[in-house]
């Protein structure tokens, strides 16, 4: 691997940490990153740099920092006294990395945190019986048929079919209204 300048090396280190921490690429190890990006750095120095960058990236990801939050965070990190702070070059590399990779990190974290299996699709219809075969009046009321498509990432879909009469549909609608009210209350409090 050709010698990279310190800014490119730091950018590659951040990408490697992101791949391991957020995308679960276990083949990207701390030792591999040291050997490829910082072969001349002592193990202790690299371990400290790796730990600092990993901690900062995790802070940025957990807060899902927007541009203004990122700039304020990085400014505070550069003003830290002692060895715990960032250099201006490190802050610039972190800023460039986050601007280009924020959406990927966010999507990866969301995919890891979602319940499996997830709801992929929903279709429904209402069936109404018009008359019995013998010409008698129809029995029962309308029936709602709902098909749920369920599946996890990289899995085939499974389908679940549900049948509701009018009373069950009303119960479902009441529960959904209760859920919406709860969400509205929580949103108003925040």
- Helix/strand/pairing class, anyone? alpha+beta
Count all strands and give the number: 3
Overall structural domain count: 2
User: Treating each run of at least 4 consecutive H or I residues as one helix, how many helices?
Assistant: 6
Ranges with pLDDT <50 over ≥5 residues? Answer: none
Percent of residues in helices comes to 55-70%
Can you give me a brief rundown of this structure?
By secondary structure, the protein is of the alpha+beta class. It has six helices and three strands. The radius of gyration is 27 Å and the shape is elongated.
Write a structural description.
By secondary structure, the protein is of the alpha+beta class. It has two domains: 6-113; 118-132 and 139-189, Roll (Nuclear Transport Factor 2, Chain: A). It has helices spanning 6-22, 30-37, 43-63, 67-78, 88-113, 166-189; strands at 118-127, 143-151, 158-164. Helix 1 crosses helix 3, helix 1 packs parallel to helix 5 (88-113) and helix 4 (67-78) packs across helix 5. The two termini are 50 Å apart. 13% of the residues are buried.
How is this fold's topology laid out?
Elements: H1 6-22, H2 30-37, H3 43-63, H4 67-78, H5 88-113, E1 118-127, E2 143-151, E3 158-164, H6 166-189
Antiparallel strand pairs: 1-2, 2-3
Helix pairs in contact: 1-3, 1-5, 4-5
């Amino acid at each position: 691997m050709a010698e990279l300048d310190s800014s490119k090396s730091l950018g590659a280190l951040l990408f490697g940490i992101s791949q391991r921490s957020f995308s679960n690429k276990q083949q990207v190890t701390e030792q591999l990153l040291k050997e490829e990006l910082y072969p001349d750095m002592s193990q202790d120095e690299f371990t400290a740099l790796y730990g600092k960058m990993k901690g900062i990236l995790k802070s940025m990801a957990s807060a899902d920092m927007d541009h203004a939050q990122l700039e304020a965070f990085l400014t505070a990190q550069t003003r830290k006294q002692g060895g715990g702070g960032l250099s201006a070059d490190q802050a610039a590399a972190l800023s460039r990395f986050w601007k280009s990779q924020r959406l990927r990190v966010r999507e990866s974290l969301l995919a890891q945190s979602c319940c499996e299996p997830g709801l992929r699709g929903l279709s429904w219809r209402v069936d109404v019986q018009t008359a019995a075969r013998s010409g008698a009046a129809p029995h029962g009321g309308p029936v709602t048929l709902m098909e749920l498509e369920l599946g996890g990432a990289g899995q085939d879909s499974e389908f679940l079919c549900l049948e509701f009469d009018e009373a069950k549909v009303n119960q479902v609608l009441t529960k959904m209204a209760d859920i919406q009210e709860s969400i509205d209350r929580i949103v108003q409090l925040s």
